[in-house]
User: Fold these one by one.
Assistant:
Number 1:
Amino acid sequence: MTLDEAINAACDAIGIMPPKRYQLGRWAKTDTLAGKSGKGDGRVMVDDDRVTAWNWQTGVRHTVWLDSDRTPEQRRVSARKVAERAEDQRRRADDAAKVAQRIVSSAVPANHPYLSMKGFPDEKALTLDAAAIRDIGGRYLVPDGGQRAIVIPVRIGGQIRSIQLIWEGGTKKFLAGGEIGGASHRISNGSETWLCEGYATGLSLRAALHSLYRPATVLVCFSASNIVAVAKTINGRCFVAADHDAPPKVNPNQFGGLGAGEYYAKASGKPYMMPDLIGTDINDLHCRQGIFPVQSLVLSATRRAAHRRAA
């Protein structure tokens, strides 16, 4: 694999644009594939032996290793660099956790335009105004025109390790350096567990489960790949509500011809469901056709799981 191929593969895996220029050992800024709302929210680092891409909107990183013949000394140097970066990442994560806790403690429950747009005008979530977010966390967290954001605590083992901010138009931001791997946000409790990517999807899923009288825990996992990590921590019955993503454009066979949502849902080993229409999620289905199609998907997924257990 050439360096350019490695850069393209790493960026494509997490939905960011390859950088126009880069320097070895330094993070290069780029954009995500989310358009204007993702401007400047991608980072790429090129080293002697790997390329690491980082999507600040989703918090997901992906590394592609380069094929190279290295001497033992080169391997030792590389290992030392990896250890140094791991320690730096740990410090950054701890700093981000402190910032996240300050933002969460400053937020107050309120209605929000994003919730109305997603079909939940009466729903209240933690919110905080742009000025406070800018003061506590930094200007990069506030998109152009952002006035007030939904603040979603990102927890690992019950502790707040980061936040996701959702702005009026749907722009999503994570804290730089915050931990996302294995993290989730709980929006309901019950005897079975459902995992999904996004907050609005979680609300639609909660509504469908509640209307079916199925008390369930709904966990927002923030990205398709992170569903796999969260699924490993769940005991008891667990299901996945996947987004129906299209296969990646740059490398359509990267996920075996599947979209990222279905690929990682399968990788979780849990029963899963997703809407029929490519490019949509459960909330899209809910907003477009109402709660009944979502209920039908839930029932189909649970029946298939019951049949497999009985077989």
Number 2:
Amino acid sequence: MPHVIVKIVGQSEESKQRISEKLTQTLTDTLSIDEQFVSISIEDIVKENWVEDVYKPDILEKSDSLYKKPGYDPL
């Protein structure tokens, strides 16, 4: 039962819905599960707060659990 949290800056509701649909499809296909077992949350992050709210706590401090690392370093 995967739950995915997406943290994102400045996207429309339409884009968020597409992200949710594509992630759901990818998870159901890859894990061979029904979509009823998938939940997805999308959190809007203010661009100026990205480093403190996302980069430091979720990327730097949890780098051992990242399967796709970013190609940027804002520090």
Number 3:
Amino acid sequence: MANVMEIYRYLDSLAPFSIQMSFDNAGFLVGRGEASVQKLLVSLDITEEVIEEARSLDCQLIISHHPLIFHPAKRVTDADPVGRCVLALAENHIAAICAHTNLDAVSGGVNDALAQKLGLTDIEQLHQDGEDASGRPYGIGRVGFAPGHFYLPEFAAFVRERLGADGLRLEDAGRPVYRVAVGGGACGDMLEDVIRMGCDTFVTADVKYNVFLDARAMGINLIDAGHFSTENVVCPVLADWLGRGFPSVEVFLSKQHKEVFYSL
């Protein structure tokens, strides 16, 4: 038998919440710490559909990547999506723990999961942000070597298939894909790090127009593979961590939460 706080402390040992970025709101966000957990659900986001899924599975806890409560809440009512979710969690006695930028940065987290999903080898950090209290280095992004000989169209097709992405946006610099940087989620501002690490190709998401222009000027192949697709790769990792840490707890991966848009 485990309770919510025991699971929180376990996640904190793997992806310390103390290293989250200053703007973030990762942590234990909803519920009672002493509540027992027999079943839990892992999802990229906590939405009304995910909460209903957790309720139908009789889960006592949802663990997500994106924080349910990101901005300071002045009220909790059914008049807005966050309020409805908080109320639904409370009414169904479901707790919420969210591991966000701390999970992005740690070894084995979002960016390692993305690099491994794309078959990169000799993986290293794209940018080191610091060391945690145990002296373990952490940072956003990863760099590795492509798992074969590609030019961008072939590599983009490979990325789309591996990530199950609905669609990609590309800047083709005409260079062979050899040394690849990845940044799960919105990491378009890391182009300088990509160049510093000697990369020819960058896979990330939420890329702004000016970043595509910069990539063209810098001669970098750029792939925007979507926020959901580049980060959802961590959910099976979380499920595996939790299954190994709490073998008596039944762990589910959300089947309801999927990409929020589609491409024509």
